[in-house]
Amino acid sequence: MNSFQPILLIRADADPTIGSGHVMRCLAIAQTWLRTGGTVHFACRDLPDPLRDRLVRVGCSVQPTTAKPGSEADAKALSEIARSLAADWIIVDGYAFGVEFQQQVLATSGRLLVVRDDDGPTHVRANTILNTNVFAQREFYSVESASELLIGPSYALLRDEFRDAARCQSDVAPQVRRVLVTFGGADPNDMTSRALAALDSLNDPELHVDVVVGSCSTRQSLPSGSKYRMQVRWRQNVSNMASLMSRADIAVTAGGSTCFELAAVGVPMFIVAIADNQLPVAESLGRLGAAVYLGQQADLRDPELANEIQELFHAADRRRAIAETAKRLVDGRGTNRVVDRMLRPLIRLRPANADDSRQLFDWQRDPIVRRWSFSEGPNEFDEHCSWLAQKLADKNSHVFVCESESGAALGCVRLDLRSGRAVIGLLLDAAFRGRGLAAVVLGAALDRIGTQYPCLEIDALIKPENESSRRSFAAVGFAFRSLERVDGQPAERWTMRLGQAKVANSPATLVRLPDSVPIPLAS
């Protein structure tokens, strides 16, 4: 069976009270999941039509739910949907879904990931807990809460449009000419109008302001910008938010998930907490220097708002420092890391045997694999069988076949031990390239190898022009070590020590999963 189509079920809601952030950050996971060849199904209650249409456009199905969110009936309904779909993973994102709900879903369904915004110790039950906030700590969760914790902004959930939108540090304008104003999916107390009044008090007719209104807004219609001295353009249900951000010199926003988007793009931001649950995010980003936190909406006075905005408008160095600090926190690759961790349990490694001879031979004869290998290997099948027999008998060599849970052969991994170190290589079957699976398979292999060799130092030898291989190894924690020659050819040596195959803090070493070529086996 040559298929790998993992099934994801997501339970999240959006409305004028809670906004659209829960659904939108789950959409980020859905987009990445779909690229792997999987399917995504949302279960939502009273979802606004524009948001439902957006989910459908990217390839998700949407199933309506009727039970009270977080209730026993809701958990039962979600479990029944999961069973009918044979879901590999369930994601639950929302404040209504408490520990009783989680336990009920976990007891009757497959793997469960809960998305949390906890700012202190709490009770959670899941296979995986995801808290992307800058204030999040592993200590918030007990050892019984979950088997895996994904903690911090390196896992920030950003949609596809933000993947390549990050700007250069030098792009911070000396003078502010364009402002983005957005207060999330709902803005129930109309902080937008107060922000516009503060900007208009600057009396700058050359100032351009883009106002983005969310899909859960209660506004019956968008106002005209003609009453302002500045140039105002209102927008709703936008699909090009990253583009709007990249054109903005500064942003005024709420303390929700939009902050992570602005940080990734590199836009200096003012934050107003328009709900109590936004306080930890806003205060933390302000304290770190990644934003200017203005305070809670109810406590903020309009003259103070105007003064703060005016001061930052004329401080280019300060705006640049804010943008640089924010970009160090959020590199835009968090969604890939989350999906990587979710897919690893769906991949199994088994030791190769003689029955795999034909499959391994066909893989190694693949023209793309040969292009990136340092030696061509056996040209005849009989020679290959002899080579494989020697490898299987060698206690210092390990050859693994990587398979999906359904039995699809995804590729293979080879590990050769040499004087207390090891050299690793990986290749993917041609049917599974271009789906972002190379780093997932490599990560699953390192998990398996680490159980036998917990402190082993591993090298990967990569041709310098093989950019996607370099990115794959960097994504799981390898770092460039040296440039040398292998069989007379230039080679980069990338190294890591097992126990460090985790998310690193440096955005430079954590990049998007590769889309094209496999990682060749080192000879």
Helices and strands in order, then pairings?
Blueprint: E1 7-12, H1 21-35, E2 39-44, H2 49-58, E3 61-64, H3 72-85, E4 89-93, H4 99-108, E5 111-115, E6 128-131, E7 148-151, E8 178-182, H5 191-200, E9 208-213, E10 231-236, H6 241-247, E11 250-254, H7 258-265, E12 269-273, H8 279-288, E13 292-296, H9 302-313, H10 316-329, H11 334-343, E14 347-351, H12 357-365, H13 367-372, H14 381-393, E15 397-404, E16 409-418, E17 421-428, H15 438-452, E18 457-462, H16 467-475, E19 479-486, E20 489-497
Helix pairs in contact: 1-11, 3-4, 5-9, 7-10
How many helical stretches?
16
Principal-axes geometry comes out as globular
Helix content percent band: 25-40%
Q: How many β-strand runs?
A: 20
Strand order, sheet with most strands:
3-2-1-4-5-6-7
Structural class by SSE content: alpha/beta
| Percent of residues in beta strands | 15-25%
CA radius of gyration: 25 Å
Q: Regions with pLDDT < 50 over 5+ consecutive residues?
A: 501-523
* CA(first)-CA(last) distance: 29 Å
Main beta-sheet strand count, sense and barrel state: 7 strands, parallel
Mean pLDDT: 88
Describe this structure in words.
With 523 residues, the protein is an alpha/beta fold. Helix content is 33%, strand content 23%. It has 16 helices and 20 strands. The strands form 3 sheets. A 7-stranded parallel beta sheet has the order 3-2-1-4-5-6-7, with helices on both faces.
